[in-house]
Structure formats: C-alpha cells, structure tokens
Structure prediction request, 80 residues.
Amino acid sequence: MPTVLRLGPYRFYFYSHEPNEPPHIHVDCGGLSAKFWIQPVSLARNMGYAAHQLRDIRKMVELHHGELLEAWHGYFGAKG
Prediction:
C-alpha cells in the first residue's frame, strides 16, 4: 500500500493490486476510510466519515489532484 501523501491525520494511499480501476485514492484516519476517484474528483465509497470531513478531504484531493494522479501513473503506468 504505497502512501502517497500525509496531511494532518489523513493518510492518502492506494493498493498495489488495483491497476484495473480508474485512478483513485484511499484516505484513512484512525478507523475511518474513504475512496475518492481522482479524475474527476468524486467520492467512491465512505466508511465512517461525517459529511463535513468528506468535504474537507475532497478539497484536499482537489488541491493535490496533480500530485495524486502523477503518483498513480508513476506506480501503475500510463494504462493504470
């Protein structure tokens, strides 16, 4: 599970066995988890975050969109 970014209590990462899905990022904090599609940025799955936390995380994903997408393609290649 390569960690791409850490912002405050949040860890942004992807699983190394998910190359056949569109670019996305998992975000964990404590026992909470969410999955966001990177392009376009949208929530794919939420496991425990409150709505205000999801808004904050989405803003972080949008702010670091280029970095997250570059990390995805750097790890999985152009087709991943």
In short: The CA atoms of residues 70 and 77 lie 10 Å apart.
